[in-house]
């Protein structure tokens, strides 16, 4: 099932429009796939919806790690931007899924989304594949266990996508990025906060600075540094407000909306848990 055919998407697909700008790029692809016109100019969109950049210039470890954790955009910003651009004629809902989600049911839900004229943006943990990135990709089709995505035009298996969506909110920072930066008192004060404590970030930095690898509190440690990702993995689903069938479909498969706290941003975001047991 396809929202747009491959040939149609090749004509209207937008590839990355700037550094860390997969979120704004996904906005353009959602609008194009749902036949919104006129599309925003990419440069104007980046002024309206800028992507946060990694701060490679700072010598402060805590400032660098924060810039890595919040680089790009999060799902909430994509949803808000699309709703603002379309003057709320497009509606967005964000879904999270459980680990070990039923592959067949998930694939069927994706297929029914496209059948109901719903565009999907997947927020994926690609560190799982050894890539140095989280990524937002709009999907427009599914066929033979392969999900068709944009930016870049590719296919991802349903099993792969489930793993990207459920791997957890983490990132890996090369040890060299830690060794070459300073660990000052302000950094230590910042990194003692709860939002960094979940990965024992400060303890690991001290180990890396001392060249100590092996075990930390009885747990195996790796040479590089694991830190929290500021956002959350999941699926942003979009359809036109006039599309009652599509809206009813999304409501049918959504649990009651709830808040999830993002400690890096120090705020709550709205999520729905995808319920496929219907």
List the helices and strands and how they pair.
Blueprint (H helix, E strand, L loop, with lengths): L5 H7 L9 H12 L8 H7 L12 H10 L4 H11 L4 E7 L6 H13 L3 E7 L8 E10 L2 E4 L4 E4 H9 L3 E4 L1 H5 L5 H7 L2 H4 L3 H10 L4 E2 L2 E2 L4 E4 L5 E7 L3 H9 L5 E5 L4 E7 L5
Parallel strand pairs: 1-12
Antiparallel strand pairs: 1-10, 2-3, 2-10, 3-4, 4-5, 6-9, 7-8, 11-12
Helix pairs in contact: 2-5
Summarize the structure in words:
The structure is a single chain. The chain has 278 residues and is of the alpha+beta class. It folds into 2 domains: 6-169 and 231-273, Cathepsin B, Chain A; 171-228, no CATH class. Helix content is 37%, strand content 23%. It is built from 12 helices and 12 strands. The protein has helices at residues 6-12, 22-33, 42-48, 61-70, 75-85, 103-115, 158-166, 175-179, 185-191, 194-197, 201-210, 244-252, and strands at 90-96, 119-125, 134-143, 146-149, 154-157, 170-173, 215-216, 219-220, 225-228, 234-240, 258-262, 267-273. The protein is globular. The model has no long low-confidence stretch (mean pLDDT 94).
């Amino acid at each position: 099932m396809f929202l747009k055919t491959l040939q149609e998407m090749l004509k209207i697909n937008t590839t990355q429009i700037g550094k860390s700008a997969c979120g704004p790029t996904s906005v353009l692809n959602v609008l194009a796939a749902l036949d919104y016109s006129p599309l925003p100019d990419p440069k104007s969109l980046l002024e309206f919806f800028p992507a946060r950049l990694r701060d490679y210039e700072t010598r402060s470890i805590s400032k660098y790690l924060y810039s890595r954790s919040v680089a790009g955009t999060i799902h909430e910003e994509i949803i808000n931007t699309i709703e603002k651009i379309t003057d709320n004629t497009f509606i967005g809902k964000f879904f999270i899924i459980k680990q070990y989600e039923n592959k067949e049911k998930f694939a069927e839900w994706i297929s029914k989304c496209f059948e109901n004229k719903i565009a999907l943006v997947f927020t994926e943990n690609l560190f799982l594949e050894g890539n140095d990135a989280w990524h937002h990709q709009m999907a427009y089709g599914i066929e033979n266990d392969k999900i068709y995505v944009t930016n870049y035009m590719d296919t991802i298996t349903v099993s792969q996508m489930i793993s990207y969506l459920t791997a957890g909110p983490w990132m890996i920072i090369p040890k060299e990025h830690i060794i070459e930066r300073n660990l000052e008192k302000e950094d230590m004060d910042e990194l003692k906060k709860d939002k960094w404590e979940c990965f024992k970030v400060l303890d690991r930095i001290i180990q890396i600075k001392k060249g100590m690898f092996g075990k930390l509190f009885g747990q195996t440690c790796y040479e590089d540094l694991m830190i929290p990702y500021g956002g959350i993995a999941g699926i942003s689903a979009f359809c036109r407000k006039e599309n009652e069938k599509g809206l009813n479909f999304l409501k049918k498969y959504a649990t009651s909306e709830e808040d999830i706290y993002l400690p890096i941003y120090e705020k709550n975001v709205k999520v729905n848990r995808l319920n496929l047991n219907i």
